[in-house]
Design goal:
The chain is α+β, with helices and mostly antiparallel strands. The protein is built from twelve helices and four strands; from the N terminus they run ααβααβαβαβαααααα.
């Protein structure tokens, strides 16, 4: 097959259907940008889970005098020294526990003032109203229920709280947003495939005389189809390149510069450039193969070769 002939036919096809080719490029670019974005969002959620789940604590809040008067869990009164020692001893014996730290009511009051000092409620609180607590770091954050089962309802214990539950709500929201992006991506992908098929068919119809002559002189089916398939592949590859550009620009301006979230949100461990760069070959390969396969199957029926 003469490469010059194929390349010339690709150029002719792209110029004849310039508007539809532009639509294919845009739709492929948007769908693959969303595809890459959803992959990066999954990586970001996984990175955040690994970072935050390693830092979550289980807190055992102990009853104080105020709780004894108002909380049914503390009906037997404020926690005693013997109860605190027994709780600490039992915690140290548990294999799921990595580290235990104690927070007194004075320390809890100090931390509350540091975080919520501007709140109207802060001025009415006193240290004796704050709860003592044990903060437990688990070897496996998923084993929270072991602590809850062992200590929830015990004398002197007001409640057992797991910070992981708060994070699960956040990650649930992020995962929901990610699936919404994937749904939009799927719709854009369908639109892109339809545009590719229609573009190839229009191109084949406009060149039906040439293809008819080629069939009469005994040209193979692949020889006839090749220019159309490569035309679709080139348009798709351009769209894939644009999608890669979107992802690089978004990573640069949203995380590093512009919005500079990495500087404003220091508590979030953002994905690095390596995560973005590893997705680009997949996007480019998809942008090349998807249009080529769509064109191949469309032409088999349309050209009957």
């Amino acid at each position: 097959m003469r490469a010059q002939f194929v390349l010339s036919e690709i150029g002719v096809g792209l110029r004849r259907n310039l508007t539809m080719t532009f639509a294919v490029v845009v739709s492929v670019a948007l769908s693959l940008a969303l595809f890459g974005g959803s992959l990066l969002m999954s990586d970001q959620v996984s990175t955040m889970k690994g970072y935050w789940y390693d830092k979550v604590n289980v807190s055992i809040f102990l009853c104080n005098k105020s709780d004894a008067e108002s909380d049914p869990h503390c009906a037997k009164g404020a926690v005693t020294t013997e109860q605190k020692d027994q709780i600490l001893s039992d915690l140290k014996k548990m294999t799921v526990v990595e580290k235990v730290s104690y927070e007194s009511s004075d320390q809890a009051y100090k931390h509350y003032k540091e975080q919520f000092g501007d709140s109207p409620l802060a001025s009415s609180l006193t240290p004796d109203q704050m709860q003592e607590s044990y903060r437990i770091k688990l070897k496996d954050p998923q084993k929270y229920q072991v602590i809850a089962t062992a200590f929830d309802g015990r004398d002197g214990v007001q409640s057992v709280q797991d910070q992981k539950g708060i994070l699960d709500n956040l990650f649930g929201l992020l995962n929901g947003m990610n699936w919404a992006a994937r749904a939009v991506m799927a719709m854009m992908l369908v639109v892109a495939l339809m545009l590719i098929v229609n573009t190839v068919r229009v191109s084949a119809f406009s060149r039906r005389r040439e293809t008819g002559i080629m069939r009469l002189v005994g040209a193979s089916g692949f020889y006839i189809q090749a220019p159309f398939i490569m035309e679709a592949a080139v348009a798709g590859l351009i769209g894939g390149g644009v999608a890669c550009g979107f992802l690089l620009v978004a990573r640069y301006f949203i995380i590093d510069h512009g919005l500079a979230l990495s500087q404003k949100l220091n508590l979030i461990n953002f994905i690095g450039w390596d995560a973005v760069l590893t997705k680009l070959p997949l996007i480019l390969a998809t942008s090349l193969l998807m249009p080529a396969l769509a064109a191949f199957f469309a032409l088999r029926k349309y050209l009957k070769v």
